Amino acid sequence: MWALVRLTSTGGDDLSLQLSDYVQIGLIAVLVLAMAVYYRNRASRIYGVLSYEQQRLQELVDTLPHGLVKLSLDGTVLFVNPAYEAILGEGQQPVGSPLWRHAASDAEAGQLRDTLLRAIDAAEKRGSCEAQMRRADGAVRTVRFDWACRTAGAETVVTAIATDITDFRQASRQLRESERKYRSLFDQSLDGILLLGSDGCVIAANPAACRILDQPEQELIGAGRWPLFGSEPAEHTERLAELRRAGYIHAEWGCERTDGSRIIVEVSAALFEGEEGEERICVVFRDITDRKAAETQLAVSREELRLLSNSLQTVQDAERQRIARELHDELGQYLTAVKLDVKWIRSRLTPGVENIVSRLDSIDRTVDMTVAAVRRMAANLRPVILDDLGLTAACEWLLQEFKERTGIDCRLSIDPEDFELPEAVATTSFRVIQEALTNISRHAQAQHVDVRIQRAETGLSMLIADDGVGMAERQPGDRRTLGLIGMRERIHALGGTLEIDSAPGEGTRIHVQIPASALEMELV
After folding, report:
1. How far apart are CA 507 and CA 463, in angstroms?
2. Are 9 and 15 spatial neighbours (Cβ–Cβ below 8 Å)?
3. pTM, two decimal places
């Protein structure tokens, strides 16, 4: 009737009691009730934790950036997250239909179906494929599916991660196309191209660079520092530092090839950032040795032609001066003698010979016109007043004669009013003004002309300005530019400059500057 009941306390002590059957039954009932309350509370806590974790899991699924699709073994969609709905677009109903229902074409649908079902039948744990899927708005997107098969109890389900890789594929194609174009440009460029590291060592070289430097690419890469950045360490460091300061260099450098020959190269170097953020240098260069030699020959030839032109102008001016003197002095004297003889004959005629008097008057008028013509021709060749009275008087006479002949108003300003100039400078200045006035009378259609001459410590400056129709840009070979070319060459021979400022409808301004050094050398 008695039973031994052993209880273990929380402290580990054993308690042994002998109770009656009723007491024993009551105690067992209390223990069962306590255990029921304990497990119910524990289950409640577990359920709360599970609910919280389920909520967190749902939030995670809803906020996944990739699409999540749950499939049955026949490919039917059982569940999708918002990201997959966004891939297909608003209005699509993927749940309850096969995964391939929204494929862009029947061929795409068939390929996706066969790939997925074949993997499920083969019990593949993991797999992936790409498919063209059509959105609700008709756009086609490339989607990558990565699936995993798992068994939960008696049920086997397939979970797939869907990633829209359309932009990635497009970027990859563009990158490959860009790399192809870059490689084509790099390989086919006629200019040498070198890629250098931050230390100036060659990383890559195109065929043109190898041809110009007469070295294969591997030798250039293995040679270390590129010679164009300086064969000496100090020079190499200085040029790299200059490149880093400016970010870009354009220069002409000498370079020695493997055969010992020297070439001149035109170099453009720039810094850029590599794929991993490292410093890189791109160098584009070309062999300009022949071009520099041709430029030197052209400069020598041009200088020789200028010397010849200046010599011809000097000879021409001297010849004009001689002819003008002969016309003015000798022919003028002869005509004056003829005029005196006519006057003498008229004074000795008797009355009644009016016909002879009339003929003598005609001869006298002819002589006067001849004298005027001789003086005009002599002045056009070289005005005697330029040699006798200087540039100021010659310019006053020239503008007065121009105004009488053309009717164009002329204003002359000279500061100071009179000054001494060497013969060559005075002749050149007069010829420039004379040529400018000739062009104005022929082409400008001007109403006013201003001529300003100033002698200062810096030299002689002149301005010839008109208010005419201006000049359009002349094409090379236009004969109307020969006078301007002659003016410019005359000034250049003195070390000066001539600039023309003109536009259609805005008149023309000719600026001339002759340096003081030329004036002083001439005066000595």
Report:
1. 13
2. yes
3. 0.44
